[in-house]
Amino acid sequence: MNPKIVVNGVGTVGKRVAHAVRKQDDMDLVGIADVSPSSTLKTVLEEDGPLHGTPLYASVPDKVEELEEGGFYVEGDLPGLLDTGQVDLVVDCTPSGVDEKNKEMYKEKQVKAIFQGGADASIAPVSFNALANYDEAKEEDFVRVVSCNTTSLSRTLWSLNTNFGVEKAVGSLVRRGGDPMQDSRGPINSIVPVTEIPSHHGPDVQEVMPELDITTLAVKVPTTISHLHMVNVDLGKEVSREDVLKIFRETPRVKLFSAQEGYDSTAKIIEKFRDKRLRYDMPEVAVWEETVETEGKRLYWIHQVHQESIIVPENIDAIRSMFGTAEREESVHKTNENLGIE
Ligand SMILES: NC(=O)c1ccc[n+]([C@@H]2O[C@H](COP(=O)([O-])OP(=O)(O)OC[C@H]3O[C@@H](n4cnc5c(N)ncnc54)[C@H](OP(=O)(O)O)[C@@H]3O)[C@@H](O)[C@H]2O)c1
Predict the structure, then answer these.
(1) Among the listed residues 132, 133, 94, the one whose alpha carbon sits nearest the alpha carbon of residue 114
(2) How much is the pTM?
(3) Which atom of ligand 1 is nearest to the CA of 119?
(4) Tell me, what DSSP letter sits at residue 40?
(5) Which residue has the least CA distance to atom 47 on ligand 1?
């Protein structure tokens, strides 16, 4: 029997995760839940929308009427649905703060739940990345999929650590000011540094790989389509740039791009996926080939992170790990195939 999944919070992350669950043959999306009749909800449920036909529930009972008045057919409310015993796991994609409150409901209703990177690490016993610690989520009731920035660092650093050892990593993060839909966010004419060093991203990577020595610095800039990271790593041994390129080529969900071929900015790389994929999603970490350089044991590179979609495959793998329905390699492969990840 496939695990029955509900996605609570159908915003930037939730609509993508719900669509990704629908694309798997070993889990069933039995509902989505939200609190207001947003334009996003309208679009995804329209006849040709990616979630058309998915039963809609109000996340809390007193929002049923508002959704109905907004023109939606509402099956009921989420607590009521969870009472029926027909849901095995909720992927909670609500804003941070709301997730904490929801956790109490999931506990009471005895359903498993996955939380997102905006939640504090303490919300779940495991902070998850599919490559780095897939097995730790096995049989767990609560798991947190780490943020977009942390996911990109975890994938690349796990791979390097496994192959060469990592003695020290330093990441300089240039973060997008807001998502494309977030028209009220900024900065609009400024660069805003995180004045605490390390920024929270380094400690968050350590939630996934506790042994890793990493420091991160971060700034926020007026762009919407991606983050960009500049990373320096002291490896456990001397390697050539070709050795590193080979490892990056072999690492799932890491993709090399060549500036010489015209992919010389975040915009150019995203444009490729505008031509090729729904919503221009790019769950892969995009590493600029030319930026991979070594000096003895020291390695440098720059990569791009599409914040809205990088965590989507990790949510799918977390579901399989929590139900023990596949081992890591099988799950990663299956997710990639079903989502068209290269
Ligand atoms: N955006 C990213 O790039 C990104 C990347 C990685 C991880 N994350 C993490 O993913 C989580 C969700 O972020 P997001 O960007 O997807 O947020 P979002 O776009 O604001 O979506 C959140 C959704 O939850 C709904 N919501 C609000 N209160 C709710 C409640 N009480 N119960 C159920 N639904 C509720 C919101 O409805 P309304 O719009 O009506 O309030 C909205 O539809 C956060 O932890 C975030 O840090 C985000």
Answers:
(1) 94
(2) 0.98
(3) 45
(4) H
(5) 118
Q: What is the pLDDT of residues 188-208, one digit of tens each?
A: 999 999 999 999 999 999 999
The domains located in the chain, with CATH, are 4-146+311-339 (3.40.50.720), 148-305 (3.30.360.10)
Confirm or reject: Cβ of 43 under 6 Å from ligand 1.
no
Q: Which residues contact 225 (CB under 8 A, 6 or more apart)?
A: 176, 180, 266, 267, 270, 306
Query: Coil, strand or helix: which one is 183?
Result: coil
Verify whether ligand 1 is closer than 6 Å to residue 283 (CB atom). Answer: no
Q: What confidence tens digit (pLDDT) does each residue in 223-280 have?
A: 999 999 999 999 999 999 999 999 999 999 999 999 999 999 999 999 999 999 999 9
Q: Is 93 part of the annotated catalytic residue set?
A: no
9 lines ligand 1 (CB under 6 A): yes
Q: Is residue 98 within 6 Å of ligand 1 at its C-beta?
A: yes
Q: Which two tokens stand for residue 287?
A: 């590493």
